[in-house]
# Entry
Amino acid sequence: MTEYTIVNDYVLPSEGKVYGPIDVKPNVTLRSMTTAEEMRRLNHSERQYKLLAEIIDECITTPLGISAYDLCVADFQFLLHKLRIVTYGPSYKLSTTCPWCTSQNENLVNMDELVVKPFNAEIYEKYSEFELPVTKSKIKLRMQTPRMMDDIKINAKDLNCYEILEKLSTIKMDKFGIFKLLNSFLKTKLSLIFSIAYTPKITNDI
# Structure
């Protein structure tokens, strides 16, 4: 006897068009979580995205063609929201605190009413590949995945400034050149930090 009572059909925002040769099925049937799955999502894990991706995979009742762990973050976040809806309903209570007066506000959000932007092939092609202005190197960007986000978090713990300086010392470049390189490196790291901050944080409270 199955424990779930709610099943809904959804279409991935990317429509499966950003995965190259991988045949990702954009039409997804999602069931609500079982009691065991709800308890499992509360477990601590260094790879929190992986834990949630495994639960999403188990709740998808139609072949997706790829693990939720390797979906682009937009598709993953979409399925996470929909999993919350089919399990607990669309109403989500938000509590916010004003940083100036410390007053607290509570709002009820209908997650079914959140606007989902569909995949735009023109924008994707325009910004996924470009040329660096100085080196003229050709760069091709990949969509962030939950797996990549877990790797970034874990690898950040191993980031050692002394190792970075040691690598810089081996580069044959004048002091001004090293300063420019280090400045560029720091800007890149700041951009990465902002990109992580902008990405909705994954928590167990869904």
Remarks:
- The radius of gyration is 21 Å.
- Residues 189-204 have pLDDT under 50 and may be disordered.
